[in-house]
Amino acid sequence: MQAKNAILVAAALLLFFFSANALWCGAGDRGGKLLEFTVNCFGKGEIILTCSDGSDRGQCFRRQSCDVGDCNVGTSGLYLNNACRANCVDENTTYVSIVCEPIPLTEPAINLSYESYTGYLGQEFTIEGFAGDAQRIKDIYFEEVEGCDINHTPQDFNTMSASVKAAFTCSRLFSDVEITLVAKDYCNAVSTETALLSVEEYCPRECTPVKYPQCTDGVLSECSEVRDCAFLEETVCEFGCEGNACCVPSSCQELGFECGPATGSCDENVSCGECPNNGNCTNNKCPQPQTDQNQLQPTGQLPAQTTAGGFDLSGAIFYGPIVAVIIVILFIIVKVLRRGEE
After folding, report:
1. What's this model's pTM, rounded to 2 decimal places?
2. CA distances for 248 relative to 92, 217, 220, 232, 241, angstroms
3. Are the C-beta atoms of residues 235 and 222 closer than 8 Å to each other?
4. Domains observed in the chain
5. Of 72 and 323, which is predicted with more confidence?
């Protein structure tokens, strides 16, 4: 008899195992259907069924009703608040059945910090979302956005309060496109929250124009404005800094040098060449050529005429004919006047 009872108990356990798993409610269910399963028991013993026996998410269900066989004489068939019991008092086959219903879902509380976000083309930017619930958060993520790669990093995952940091990198420009944050708990209750996202041309404010230009350690820093953007540009100065600018070397002519090596205006080495006719270069100056006193006057001029006494006769040569003409005219006038008197 004991062996027979052992076989019956083993059979009951097998039936319980297979019946429970046959009606197992997987993670894909949102709790929208009832759980109902039956276990047979043989002979003396007690079978207790709970909603957790039929689902890996037993916390998402509660007992709706129980049904037991006629061998459960003297009991109500109810056990605690969320289970059913069959108490077999004889060797007849009996059963216990439990029907579980989904508990009312509590949607996860979900939050985005801002109603709108702005990112830059090709630049990574991060948007953070938050969720909390009476149940553990199973998943939290942003839905896909066309033209954007999203890398999710969940925080405090698998707890009743979770968040996610999503790194967006977008390859196209757009304005006020809706993005959606999704949160799911372990009872598959789902909540969503939306915001607007715009992606603009990369337009940083890297510098403040009024503080530039600056030149330090041979590097010139300048702030260039393009529309609302400000870009910092750096140039290596070949000859170092001069104030807040690159030093610009002067030419030999600007320095007043005619020859020889010298130190330029930017402390650079300068070579100003050699003097004509292998002349000696002194203090970067070439010697002045000697002047010939007997050289001819420029074309079109007569050489100066002097007398033995050193007087300049060039004036006499030019004015002499004019004086002679004037004398002749005066002589003629006087002669005419005398004849008129006679």
Report:
1. 0.46
2. 111, 16, 13, 22, 9
3. yes
4. 2-102 (no CATH), 109-200 (2.60.40.10), 209-246 (no CATH), 249-287 (no CATH)
5. 323
